[in-house]
Each structure stands twice: as C-alpha cells, then as structure tokens.
Amino acid sequence: ECTNIFSKGGGEALARDQGVPFLGCVPIDPSLVALIEGSTPAPPAAAADASTADARRIRFCDAFAESAVAPLFAEMASAVRRSCERRDAQAGSVEDATAASWQHHVRVRNSTSTTLTISMFDDHNALVLSSILAPHPSRGLVFSLDLSNHNAELLATYRDADSPTFSTSQGSTDLLPNGNVLVGYGDHPTVREFSADGSEVLMAMTFGRDYVADSFRVYRRQWAASPRATRPKVVASSEEGLGWVSWNGDSMTRTWQVWVNEAAAANVSRAGFETNFTLPTGAAEVQVFALGADGAVLGNSTVVAVGA
Fold first, then answer.
1. By the 8 A CB rule, do 101 and 88 touch?
2. d(CA 250, CA 231)
3. CA dihedral 58, 63, 66, 72 (to 10 degrees)
4. Model pLDDT for residues 220-235, shown as the tens digit of each residue
5. Helix, strand, coil tally for the chain in percent (to 5)
6. Rounded distance between C-alpha atoms, residue 207 and residue 213, angstroms
7. Cα distance between residue 92 and residue 110, in whole Å
8. What percent of the chain has pLDDT over 70?
9. Which residue blocks in 92-226 are alpha helix, DSSP H?
10. Alpha-carbon span 173 to 154, nearest angstrom
C-alpha cells in the first residue's frame, strides 16, 4: 500500500510542460541504498592510495557504476541533454530571444495603440538540472511587440560576455533615467549596470556574506533621507585643532553649524560622509547642528568635550 502524504501529480505535469524526464518515481536499487548506508571496508588499493574520504568516494563510484540504476540515470541524463539540444536548435543562437526561459520582472516601457516596448529578465535556465547540463548566460532583454501583425523584435540584450552569470530563479531588468540598464541576477548575488545598447558593463558588484544571498529585485535610486532614530556624531581634538562630524544615513544636510563653548562659531559646508572643521583656541566643548538647504535645523549632536 502507498500513502501519498503530499499532493500527487504536480511534478509529472511540470516535467511534461518542460519536455524533460520525470524523476519523482525512479526505483532505487537496494544495493545502492546498502552501499550508501553501509560501512563496507574500502578495497586495499584504495585505502593505501587515498585518504578515508577519497576511499569512500572511490568505493561509491565503483559500486554505482556496477549497480542496476547506473544505466537508467545515464539514459535520463542523455535524454535531458537531447531535449536541451533540440530546444537550442529550434531557437537558434543564444542571442535569439525565443530561447528565453524562466522570465521575471516583465514591464511595459512604452505603448501605443499598435506597439508595446517591454523589458524583462531572462534566467535562461528553466531548471537547475538544465543549468548544469546545458547552461545559458542569464540576461536582460528589451522587445518591441507589433500588436497588429503579432510579431516581436528583440531590441537589446544585456549580458556580460566576459563574465556570464547563470541564474535559475528571480532577477530583474531596470531601465534607468539616464538610459543605462541595471540587471540583478536573482539567486546569484550580482548586480551589473550596462550602457543603453548593452555593449559595455559600466558597473559590477556582488553582495551578501560568503556570496550567499538572493535579490528578487534590484534598484538604483537617488537616496534622500534624514534619520530620526539617530543623531549626528562629533569628535574633536585640541592637539590637532580639528573636529569631525558625520550623520550615518543622512543625505539632506547641506551645512554643519558648529557651536563651541555654547556659542555659534562657524558654518561649514558638508563634504561627503565626514566633514572636518577647525577648532578655535580655547575650545573645551563642541556641538554641531545639521542645516538643510533652506537653513532649517534637521538634527543636532550632543555636547562633547574636546579631547587631547
């Protein structure tokens, strides 16, 4: 008796849609299970010439090659390869947009009564298995759709030919106001900015600890913020005759108003993430106020003692 504790049939339907073998009901050779779970000693030659881990790998590979399931898996792998080859032959070159698979972030960029311009991200790898057996570089795409004649024209492709990325999920293609195109690669923590025609990679970056992170969408926008939960930080040194002020996350400050010994001493234009200013002689305490473009106070530091 067989009891299905989860719903049944979804994997088979997906396999049919993708034109690949269904692997969910592959019989397992009992000898293979025994090999995996058992502790048969390694052959003397393997034990003498390899580490314990290497010996296990040699033992497993040798036994698997002789097991009843080996020909079955070999045939399935060949079938997947043939399927990928047929798909590529029908689709044409890798630049042919009809070979797209697993598209994301489809957006209308321009429209008339008879045409649409759309952008999308194309993982270009329908399944993890196909990304291994027949990998295709993931890319951003822009199309023009002729609604009257039901034709599609590929206008631009955005992929890095020198350093291709192979995604199997998620991703985005964002057309920037300056005409450039920002592409995020979903399950690969990579972001690239391309020129408008896709011929140049203008910026490339990775993110995430140990290169482990996903991005459903990536965006590039002008940052505008004035923090409410934090205050500007200031330190000062009498020995150097300088003070330094910064406000993490703030982009609205235009001028720092410096107070020394409870009196306004100077206005200093903001200079990037950290701004320095000159301390007058005899400065014992210092405080700074962040001023916006209109001169309004956005925030202030605490009063701090001038250090040595």
1. no
2. 10
3. -100
4. 888 888 888 899 999 9
5. 25, 30, 45
6. 7
7. 28
8. 67
9. 128-133
10. 15
